[in-house]
Amino acid sequence: MLGARRLLGALRLCSSVSCPRPRASAKMRVRDALRVQDARGECVTVQGWIRSVRSQKEVLFLHVNDGSSLESLQIVADSSFDSRELTFGSSVQVQGQLVKSQSKRQNVELKAEKIEVIGDCEAKAFPIKYKERHPLEYLRQYPHLRCRTNALGSILRVRSEATAAIHSYFKDNGFVHIHTPVLTSNDCEGAGELFQVEPSSKIKGPKESFFDVPAFLTVSGQLHLEVMSGAFTQVFTFGPTFRAENSQSRRHLAEFYMVEAEISFVESLQDLMQVMEELFKATTEMVLSHCPEDVELCHQFIAAGQKGRLEHMLKNNFLIISYTEAIEILKQASQNFAFTPKWGVDLQTEHEKYLVRHCGNIPVFVINYPSELKPFYMRENEDGPQNTEVA
Amino acid sequence: MLGARRLLGALRLCSSVSCPRPRASAKMRVRDALRVQDARGECVTVQGWIRSVRSQKEVLFLHVNDGSSLESLQIVADSSFDSRELTFGSSVQVQGQLVKSQSKRQNVELKAEKIEVIGDCEAKAFPIKYKERHPLEYLRQYPHLRCRTNALGSILRVRSEATAAIHSYFKDNGFVHIHTPVLTSNDCEGAGELFQVEPSSKIKGPKESFFDVPAFLTVSGQLHLEVMSGAFTQVFTFGPTFRAENSQSRRHLAEFYMVEAEISFVESLQDLMQVMEELFKATTEMVLSHCPEDVELCHQFIAAGQKGRLEHMLKNNFLIISYTEAIEILKQASQNFAFTPKWGVDLQTEHEKYLVRHCGNIPVFVINYPSELKPFYMRENEDGPQNTEVA
C-alpha cells in the first residue's frame, strides 16, 4: 500500500563495485531544487511522495514532497503520462528539466521526462486524505504516517533545527559536551518521581546481581555536570530525562529532552542569565532563518501569533525582577488567581504567566528568592539569607 | 579541599542589575590564550586549576589549566607572590599581561599581576599527585576528580568533538535529526537483552497502570527511524541505547550512544556505504584538526599507534569484499582461529580483525551474506537468496 516501505533499506547490489551505474541526471532534494534561482533546464531527478494531482487540459500538475521542506516541487507533465497510477500518497521518482515557472506561486518547476512510481498508494485505504485537514487527535492513530502531514513535518523539522542550534551555540562558546548517564543511582535533587530499571523478566537468574545498587532513569544530569565543570569549566548536556509522574498534562511527560549547563568561576547571576538569554535567542534565530515556512505554518494553524512573539522576544532584552518585586506586581494585579500571591510562597504557573504578560510578553528572570523556597545547595546572597519580607 | 567546589554555582548577586562591575581585564580561556600569535601585553584574566608549580631563583612558574585544552598556560610570577597557597590542584584566578614567552616550549605566557586562590587544595588529601602518572584503575575510584587528569580530559574532549562532528555531518548532508524514544514497547530486531522500566517502588498504587504495556529501554531506534524516513527521506538519531547483558568486556555496556541513519530511495548498497565512509572520515578529520594534542596524548599513552592508523584510514578508500571472498581469505590465513571459518557461518571478532589487517588496516565492508545469516527483513539481492556456496 505505501510507497516508502518498498524502498526502505532497498539495496540493489551491483555486480561490480568499482563501476557504479552512470546517472542520467543529478539527484536533488526538493528543498535545493526550490532554491535554484535562474533555472535553465538543468537535468535533475527528484524523489518523494505525491502531495497533489491536478489535470488541466493537456497538462498534469503534480506536487512532490520529500520532507526536506514544507514546500513541494511542482511537476509539469504532458498528456503522454498515465495519471491513473499517479495518486496522492504514492512515492515517485521524477526525472526532468528544472525550468522557470510560468506561475507566480513558485520560482521553478520540473518539466517531467520520466515518472516512475516506486510505491503506489490506494486512496481508499490510506488514512490521510487529499486536501483534508486532519485533527492531531485523528493523526495520533497513525504514528507511522502522520509525519507526512504538514503539521507534524514542520514540527519535527523545527525540532531538528533547534537541536542543531543548541549544539552549535554551546560549541561556539567553548562548552564541552558531556553525555551524562541515563542509568544512575542518584535521584539528583529529588526533581521528580523515578523510574526504576531492571533486566527484563525474560532473563534468568537473580536480577539483583545486575547492578549492585537500585538503578533509576535520570531526572537530571546536574550532579554529573557539576563534577565535570570542575575540570572543563564550561560543560553542557542535552539528553533524555525521565519522570514517573502519572499526570496527563502539557507539562508532564514520562520522557523528554533537557538542556543543562554548568559553568565554574561564574562571578554573578547575570553571567548565567546572559548565557540562557543568548542560547534562547541564537536557537530562535536559527529556526526562524532556516525554517521560515515551517514557523509560518505553526503560526497560522498550530500556535496562533507565535511568530510575532518570537520576533518580539528577539528584539528585546530579557527582564530581571526580584522575587519581592514579582509578589508586589501580582498583589496589584486586577486578575483573580486561584492561588493568592503571598511573600514566602512559591510562584504558580498562573503567576508566571501573568508576570510575562505584565512585562510585555518578554521572558522574565525572577531572582533573589527567599532561601527557604530553594534547595539547600543554592548559594546565598552575600547579605545573607532573606526569609522575611523587606521593604 | 577542592577549589572547584566552592565556585560551582557560585553566584554572587549584585544589588544593581543594569550596572555590572567593570572588569579590569578580559576573561580568556587557556585554549584561546595559547593561540595568541604576537602577544603584546594584552591585559587578560585566566581561571583554572594549578597543574604545576616551580620556583626558580626569584621567579615562580605555574601552569594553569581550565580544561579547554590539554596544554596549560604558563604563569610567570615574581617573588612578591606567596607560593605557599599556590599548590597543585588549587583553583586560581590570574590577572596579568599576555607576553611572548622566552622559552621555546610555548608561544605565550601570562606575566602575573594578581593571583587569587579561589579554592585551595591540600596535597596530602588530594588523591591525584603532582607529576605522577596514575593508572586508570586507580582513577576509577575518583569519578569526581579523574577528569582533571590529562588522559580523561583528552578522551572527553575528543568525545565532545566527535559528537559535534557527527551532528554536523548529518546536518550538512540534509538529514533530519529525530529523537527516537528511549522508553519503548518494541524490542526492535531482538538486538539484545532488554531492561524493563517501572515506576520506582516508592510510588504507591498499582504500577501496572503507568504504561498500558510492558515498557523497555530501547536497543535501537531503527524501527522508528524507518517510519520517519518515509516522510523525511534522510533521517538520523544519535542517542543512548541499552543492553541488559551482564558481560564484563570491552564490547558490552549497559548504556552506550549509537548513531543510526535511514535513507529512503537508496539505489544501491554502495550509496549507503558511501555515507558511512564519509561520516567516519568527516568525524575523524574534525577530531584530528580540532584536538591534535589530545589525539597525540592518546597515541602516545593510551592507544599506541592510533594516530597513524587514523591518518592511514583517511588517505584510503574503504574496501568492499563479498562474504564468499572473506571466507576464502580466512581459509587461506596462516593464523589459527578459535572458530574455523566456514561458508554459511557468521564471522567472529577474530575473523573481522584478521580481515582488516589483511586489507592493510583499512575498514572493510563485507557484503552479500548468505540470506540465512541475516534478519528476515533484509532485502535480497536481485539474483535471489544465496544460501549455498558458489564458485
UniProtKB/TrEMBL annotation, chains A, B:
Pfam family membership, one: tRNA-synt_2
PROSITE patterns (alphabetical): AA_TRNA_LIGASE_II (PS50862)
Molecular function terms, GO-annotated: asparagine-tRNA ligase activity; ATP binding; nucleic acid binding
Transmembrane segments: none
Keywords for the protein's UniProt record, in alphabetical order: Aminoacyl-tRNA synthetase, ATP-binding, Ligase, Mitochondrion, Nucleotide-binding, Protein biosynthesis, Transit peptide
Residues covered by the Aminoacyl-transfer RNA synthetases class-II family profile domain: 156-391
EC number: 6.1.1.22
Principal subcellular localization: mitochondrion
Xref: CDD domains: EcAsnRS_like_N (cd04318)
NCBIfam families assigned to the protein according to its UniProt record, in alphabetical order: asnS
Family: Belongs to the class-II aminoacyl-tRNA synthetase family.
Protein's UniProt name: asparagine--tRNA ligase
Gene name of the encoded protein: Nars2
